[in-house]
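Incident review: delayed structure delivery

Summary: a single-chain prediction request sat in the queue longer than the usual turnaround. Root cause was a stuck worker, restarted by the on-call engineer. No data loss occurred. The affected request and its eventual output are reproduced below so the record is complete for anyone auditing the incident later.

Affected input:
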Amino acid sequence: MKKLILTIALLTLFCCKKEKKSSEDNIVASSLKQTILEKKQKKDHQIREVKKAEIAPNVDGDMNDPIWSQSKWYPMDQNWIGEFPDVKDFIGRYKMTWTPEALYILVEIKDDVLFDQYKDPLELWWDDDCVEIFIDADNSGGIHQFNNNAFAYHIALDGNVIDLDENEKPVLYNNHVTTKRSTKDDVSIWEFELIVFDDTYKEGKINDAIVLSKDQTLGFAIAYNDNDGSKERENFMGSVFVPGEDKNQGWINADIFGTIVLVE
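Output delivered after worker restart:
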């Protein structure tokens, strides 16, 4: 009988210790998870206000819409790949505005050679001249290389829009970005209407774009791939400073995006 009582007591003590240990493990795991989430939280930088347009710009490759005269130019002057180009070769700048339906971006590029060597829009699209727009709907940052946490739209000279999907394959997103380019001499005016989708976007499904509103923040960057006739792009000029040696991070990591704030 004494042995039975002793056995029950030992089992009770063991179970209590196990329950306590399990509880402690859960607390540690929860704390660790929270720490990881905190570390992953994007730190806002290059915070810029974007003014709302009362009348949406006409996407025609022109800058005569009233809102553009009220918007500020920002430079694309950060060298992400290659050597810093001579001003005769490249100068880039952009403006932005918004309506509840879309973001609008005006880009002026001075580029002495427009080069499109690959006729297949899904073949080595980054080695042709193109504008690249990076957008993160909830400004959360993080990895987006093969998911829809954020998008990196490559807009080619012919207007095709390319990014990688969740299957790690290039896909046309021409229904996400409407564009028109006009070129005179060595200056091109690009105008974009960008419909914003969040991380719930699924390929081949019916997806609702988000409705933009005052005080909303989004992750944003823009860049230009410049190639004057080489097998590979010669320069990649972006709008955001990227620390470290490897500055070609935008297509992988949304943490490097700047932050835009929508204002009226």
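Verification: The helical segments are 2-40, 66-69.
Action items: add queue-age alerting; document worker restart procedure.
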